[in-house]
Write a structure and sequence with these properties.
This protein is mainly β and about 325 residues long. The chain is about 10% helix and about 35% strand.
Length: about 325
């Protein structure tokens, strides 16, 4: 993960410019020249982090995917120092390939000053956790990806609560240490993982599980157990993987792409991206060919470490007309 997200500074008199140190190989996803959006998120955050002093830590980033990124072309990250204050710093980042801007981000930093108000959403109940046996079982992971997943499944809507997807994730390799900690690397890794199987929460809310072109972050090979056993969740069918027992889908996703992505970091000092993190995904709205999804991420100790919102393009076929549906 650290090697994949590394960016190197390029000498420039007027600007902070960085280039991806290790270009993502198209074989990383098996999807020709497509690049997983989380790689750009992590690299852009790494570039911005190199332009602030160590007393500042990122608290939010707001990103727009302007167009697709090519895996075989170098990506440059141009960072503008928009504000340098005593408690807050702001950086803008433009990701450029061959003179074309394909991604922009606004990254906000703050000092770790204490406040009197402190709370966070509680860790969800009845979600099974990976066991030591699961930790050792790497058979159901795509080894081309720099992170791992253990899917729990979907908890159906009940009352005012929408349908929610739960999954565990962590970096495949331990994050290196610098003087006992490497907070910036953990934050960049979380930014990368936050884009994994996120937008799929929208069609899944309506029982749509099949894809013409599966998400590039699909990390299951279809030959092994895909979900941790749970009494409160049902496994997410994955008919596009063509494994035995796949449930029917209400339709098929013909196109899906992230448009924008906002990520809020709550407890950077307590974040350990190389240990299991639980994500909870739900969708609150869809219309006009777009959908809005939300994610909360907890550490295994129950600490809410991040929240994320994404809007994306979602196009489906054979979808029954449903209005005013509670997700």
């Amino acid at each position: 993960m650290e090697s994949l997200l590394e960016v190197l500074s390029i000498a420039d008199r007027d600007h902070d410019v960085f280039v991806d140190a290790n270009r993502p190989n198209p074989e990383l996803t098996g999807q020709s020249d497509r690049v997983f959006g989380g790689i750009t998120l992590g690299q852009s955050l790494n570039a911005a982090q190199q332009t602030v002093s160590t007393q500042f830590v990122v608290h939010s980033m707001h990103c727009t995917f302007v167009s697709g990124r090519r895996a075989t072309v170098a990506a440059e990250y141009h960072v503008e120092r928009m504000k340098d204050g005593r408690q807050f710093c702001v950086r803008s980042v433009r990701a450029i390939q061959e003179g074309r801007t394909f991604f922009v981000a606004l990254v906000n930093f703050t000092t770790q000053s204490l406040g009197s108000l402190h709370y966070g959403n509680c860790f969800p109940h009845d979600v099974p956790t990976p066991t030591p046996e699961d930790d050792d079982d790497d058979s159901n992971f795509n080894h081309k990806m720099p992170f791992q997943h253990h899917s729990v499944g979907m908890r159906s809507s009940s009352g005012d609560a929408p349908a929610r997807i739960h999954q565990w994730m962590r970096t495949r390799e331990p994050i290196s240490t610098k003087n006992g900690t490497n907070t910036q690397a953990h934050l960049a890794a979380l930014a990368c993982m936050s884009d994994s199987y996120f937008l799929a929460g929208a069609p899944h809310s309506h029982g749509i599980y099949d894809f013409v072109s599966p998400p590039v972050s699909e990390v299951y090979d279809g030959r092994h157990r895909l979900s941790l056993p749970s009494e409160t969740h049902h496994p997410i069918p994955r008919p596009h993987l063509d494994f035995q027992g796949s449930a029917p889908s209400n339709g098929r996703v013909t196109a899906m792409a992230s448009l924008d992505h906002s990520l809020y970091f709550h407890e950077p000092a307590r974040l350990q991206a190389d240990r299991w993190l639980l994500s909870e995904i739900h969708s609150s709205w869809a219309g006009c060919g777009r959908a809005l999804v939300h994610m909360k991420i907890w550490g295994r100790d129950g600490t809410l470490v991040a929240s994320c919102t994404q809007e994306g393009l979602v196009s489906v076929e054979d979808l029954p007309k449903v209005r005013d549906t509670r997700l």
